[in-house]
């Protein structure tokens, strides 16, 4: 029933604008109803699955890594998680393809399919490496207990500096790439990992130190993508 | 049969998303940690539910909400519908920005509505409630983030209409975030920064992208390839401000309540 409440706003917005503003009938009412019902069922199953699967395994692995006490393995795991979940992310693949198109039209690269594909693949790996780096940095921060805001503000300064030097065509894509990297499966896992680490290391507060991994993962791609645009 | 084919395709796509993650998790668990996963059966069931849940979720969105939402975005951004004579206005379109009020209103409404239904935000909100011991409510955080996205996307559409450079907005936003960070309660800061990244995924991105592209192609002088981007960036920046604002207002109310209680006790 919770998911009915979650979806109500979308349904209301769509209906109000369709009937009230555009003044058009709703096409395929049955399909719309069926689709909404499927979304509701899907959302309920997903939330149940989070509680049973993704949250416990993320936290458990955090505890186990903390007990094992091997920093290098933990950092390697953090990188693998960030890189591995991003490189195949469909939203990223779509954005990279669009970016290659922009680059071809803007004359930044040779106007051929081959050059475009190479550009898109390069961009995808750049973003994936930057997310891997972000999770490594974020995990290291939790262990050290550094305040999150200093690193984020440093990141902001990095973005501003890069914006001044990056080719204008890449800026919009770079800014957007920060938002699309974190998928629906990655977010709960990474959040559980951060909170689990912060609660198993003494002196860390899960509320203050546990969150913040996602923030890094949405900031570093901007810097790395602008760097990619400058190098090429 | 077409319907089943689509379901199978979405299921395989989602499976393709889950497998590398599961591979990394179980690989490290078995090879590095060498420990058994507690309640392995339940964890696997959880993975299965996540897989099925996302499949149904995406299928339903693709069946019903996305096609309609995209058509609406295209219609609402049509100058003909808005009653704007693009030819006559020409380059002076920026001075007529207020005539696009339906677009801003739709951007606000759809930004709010899609964010409330965003599964990754639900996940972070559940975690935040558990960790904060209930001080942060699931619904409160989600509404705070959704308001941020709604404002962000409205400002983003205004930017596309006026054609002002994206980076000035983003840099100004950063300055506001830094100032807010100085005054916000310490415990909310990391969560607020996180909420910028979780807002834009499965539900929001396709609809917002359609809105941006539609708007950039109907406003004269805008290039959809260049100006259509940037809405996601707004949608990831403004929730940081709204979540810190939510905590600041909460702390303020709390303080006032405590001080009135103190006064009552004194008298």
What does this 3D model show about the protein?
- The complex is a heterodimer of chains A (232) and B (267).
- With 232 residues, chain A is mainly alpha-helical.
- Chain A contains ten helices and no strands.
- Chain A has helices at 2-21, 29-68, 71-87, 90-105, 113-144, 148-165, 168-180, 186-200, 206-210, 213-231.
- In chain A, helix 4 runs antiparallel to helix 7 and helix 5 runs parallel beside helix 8 (186-200).
- The longest helix of chain A is centred in the first third of the chain and has 40 residues, at 29-68.
- Chain A is globular, with a radius of gyration of 21 Å.
- The termini of chain A are far apart.
- The model of chain A has no long low-confidence stretch (mean pLDDT 87).
- By secondary structure, chain B is mostly helical.
- Chain B has two domains: 1-63, no CATH class; 77-266, no CATH class.
- Helices cover 80% and strands 0% of the residues of chain B.
- In chain B, helix 2 (40-76) packs parallel to helix 10 (204-218) and helix 5 (101-116) packs antiparallel against helix 10.
- The longest helix of chain B has 37 residues, at 40-76.
- Chain B is flat, with a radius of gyration of 22 Å.
- The N and C termini of chain B lie far apart (76 Å).
- Classes of the chains: A mainly alpha (232), B mainly alpha (267).
Can you give me a brief rundown of this structure?
Chain A has 232 residues and is mainly alpha-helical. Chain A has ten helices and no strands. Chain B has helices at 2-33, 40-76, 79-82, 86-89, 101-116, 119-131, 138-162, 166-183, 189-198, 204-218, 224-227, 231-266.
